[in-house]
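To fix ideas, we quote verbatim a fold written out as tokens:
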Amino acid sequence: MMKKTRVIALEEHYLDPEVRAHFGPNDATRGEEVLKRLLDLTDLRLREMDEAGIDVQVLSHGSPSVQKMDAQTAVGLAHKANDRLHEALAAHPDRFAAFATIPTPAPEAAADELERAVRDLGFKGAMVHGLTNGEFLDKKKFWPIFARAEALGVPIYVHPSQPHPAVVDAYYADYAKEFPWLIRAAWGYTVETATQGIRLILSGVFNEYPRLKIIMGHMGEGLPFYLWRISQALSREGRGSKTFRDDFCEHFYITTSGFFSDPALVCCAMEMGVDRILFSVDYPFVENAPGTQWMNTVPFSAADKAKILSGNAEKLLNL
């Protein structure tokens, strides 16, 4: 009898009550059922994992997170949120792992909190949500975070959040009222997060920290599809022998979160290789079962499916 492949889901969200309270009643876009699941780290979550055949969730705070706070508030709340999340992990150590919440408004403190979460709490890296009070992560003020992540051997998961207000006004305002998800998962999140990835490569941060690893969800926010064109265009500027495509495929991992598409998966595998792709659902914004059911049908070998479902995560996160 063949051994069952373990299933590890990498971008699975929750909400810390105190962090949530900081932003006030902003749950209208989530809906009651999603909110109920975001706040649950016990019976309901575990039951739905079991029903879909998911063995492990790597938990991460939902957006918005501490990236939208002042430095002092962010530092205190991140520390307490990570301690509370650690309690949930301790209650179910075989079912949950975690990415830390880090207070990027205070970059040095964020690096310290990342180290504490990894060394003392056993977390597997950190997740950062969108811009930090309007600033992209490629700015050198944030590089202490990347230095510490490299030293610890853990990845930073770059996750979407609300686009910059000026971008919302210029690009989406005409349709935002009728189609509010246009700003979010339908397009705005993708544009903002892909831009984060492009800027990180152009900044030279990977030259400074050559072992740094970045994760991007939602099939890499579209970047794998554009790698050839971006690289070709940038080569006109004499960027050197190492292309944008080289940097992306060397330093980035992508996940399937909220993106269960055969053509997209095949494109990503052809561009990056199967070893760079990790299974995710984006729970509870997306239901678990469609993700695992889809993976049963993708046109890949059993060995490659096993890598995506858990093998790659086991290596990257030391699970």
